[in-house]
Amino acid sequence: MENRALGLIEVYGYLGAIATADATLKAADVELVNAEKISGGLTTIQVMGDVGAVTAGVESGRVVAESLGCLLSSHVIARMDADTQALLIEKKQVKQTVETVPEKKTTASSMTKLQQLEKMKVDQLRKLALEKQVKAIKKGDIKFANKAKLVKALLDHSESGVNE
Fold first, then answer.
1. 33 φ, ψ to 5°?
2. Residue 53 contacts by C-beta under 8 Å, 6 or more apart in sequence?
3. What span, in angstroms and rounded, lies between the C-alpha atoms of 155 and 150?
4. How far apart are CA 134 and CA 142, in angstroms?
5. What does the longest C-alpha to C-alpha distance in the chain come to?
6. Dihedral Cα 103, 108, 109, 114, nearest 10 deg
7. 3-class DSSP assignment, residue 99
């Protein structure tokens, strides 16, 4: 794995992130690694390439972000360590991996049970959950649970065969 430079530009807001990334990518031969959204409206633009290109790209993106008034900070890591680079690439690959969750087989009886529960009103579902002593929702939280959560908890409870 070759050592490349990493450029980081942190900005406020979506508009700033898009404009900064656009300017950075147009100014130099760099690759956009990630545009990571952070809470509070912060976004970090991450680019990689050779040291000169990344420096030029980050400077261009910095100028645009400053003109929009959304620049928080920027930094270039020249000749990034292989472990740091592996961390970034691994993180990128993990985000691109799609997790597949096996679906539960639905039987005719569970489907009719689902239909029955969905026809009920929320207050009726709450009473039923209290009667059945559903373990998926704490007793004190049942009165605040929405319909979807109640239906799911009741279905899971009935499938486990407890207290039928």
1. -85, -45
2. 5, 28, 29, 30
3. 9
4. 9
5. 69
6. 60
7. coil
